[in-house]
Amino acid sequence: MSVLELARAEIRALVPYSSARMEAAGGQLLLNANESAWAPFGDAGLDCHRYPDPQPAALVERLAALYGVRREQLLVGRGSDEAIDLLVRAFCRAGKDAILVQPPTFGMYAVCARVQDAAVVEVPLSVDFTVDAGAVLAAVTPAVKLVFVCAPNNPTGAGVSPETIERLARGLAGRALLVVDEAYAEFAEDAGAAALLDRYEHLAVLRTLSKAWALAGARIGCLLAHADVIALLRRILPPYPLPRPCVAAAMEALSPQGQAAAHERIEVVCTERTQMTSALRRLPGVRAVLPSQANFLAVRFDDVGAVYRRLFDAGIVVRDVRRYPGLGDALRITLGTPEENARVLAVLGEGA
Ligand code: PMP
């Protein structure tokens, strides 16, 4: 089955909304979108009185170059969260189809599926939190349209080997769309899966500017996939999803100076990750620090409740991941600046 045939027939047949900005290409006097003719107070040259381009060409071009794909293989939206939602809505029929996830993993895949009334097939990660590709492939029934792999995984931080990704891509070809979520890929050793897109049409990759690019507040995320999938999802993307100030912030962050700054920050995070991992492992009360390929650490404690409270009382909020299977004694701690990480260590050290 081609990747397009996996998608819902009614989405393939949908006549999409045609936004005014799509009609206006090349126009000089724009009187087709009921906008204000005047810029708002304090506009700073952003032209916020105009609707933005639904897929700003300059941003799409820059992101495509960054990820090494063609423009028609890329959709940009409001964070990778929006891409997850679009995929589920385009591929899963309510009450009939399913997605496959591997707990403990990022919660939005299952939430989007439930909103769409799609089933959620769970194939837990192995005890060491690696992906069990054989078990995943064995669990894919015809109802499963999307298989999510989080690489590196949130909340464990574990990377997924390129061999595993490729084995899944090969095994799912013609059966389901493999969605590799690479929100944390910039912090990982392995190159991402985008390079495989030309070989596997049933592959999609999620990327985001929220983590390594320091733009969580601008909500810019991408889906990289076969051009047919991108064209399909562009039809259901709400009109004008990307606010002009967010696009401007992304263009700045992706400029040559912005890229240099991002790479410096990534290096700092990776160095901090190594140092924090060793420092935490030396602290009494710490059972384990899971090896991480991301910008956070999952840490197991003897008395996780007391540690959470101690950090909280010191004004430090970390993610309580105790509800995740296999992580009942763990907290997920985002790596901050060296000073912030030193504060975490000091508070944990005091109570030891
Ligand atoms: N995927 C993973 C694995 C994440 O951890 C997150 C953010 N927590 C997202 C996707 C969503 O990121 P965003 O919508 O900001 O791009």
Tell me the span between the first and last alpha carbons: 58 Å
Q: How many DSSP helices?
A: 13
| CATH fold type of the largest domain | Aspartate Aminotransferase, domain 2
Main structural class: alpha/beta
- Write the CATH homologous superfamily of the largest domain: Type I PLP-dependent aspartate aminotransferase-like (Major domain)
In spatial order, strands of the major sheet run 1-7-6-5-4-2-3
Overview of the structural elements:
This protein folds into 2 domains: 3-19 and 54-254, Aspartate Aminotransferase, domain 2 (3-Layer(aba) Sandwich); 258-350, Alpha-Beta Complex (Aspartate Aminotransferase, domain 1). Helices cover 38% and strands 15% of the residues. It contains 13 helices and 11 strands. It has a 7-stranded mixed sheet, with helices on both faces. A hairpin with a 6-residue loop joins strand 8 (286-289) and strand 9. Helix 5 packs across helix 6 (108-115). The protein starts with a helix and ends with a helix. Bound molecules: 4'-deoxy-4'-aminopyridoxal-5'-phosphate (PMP).
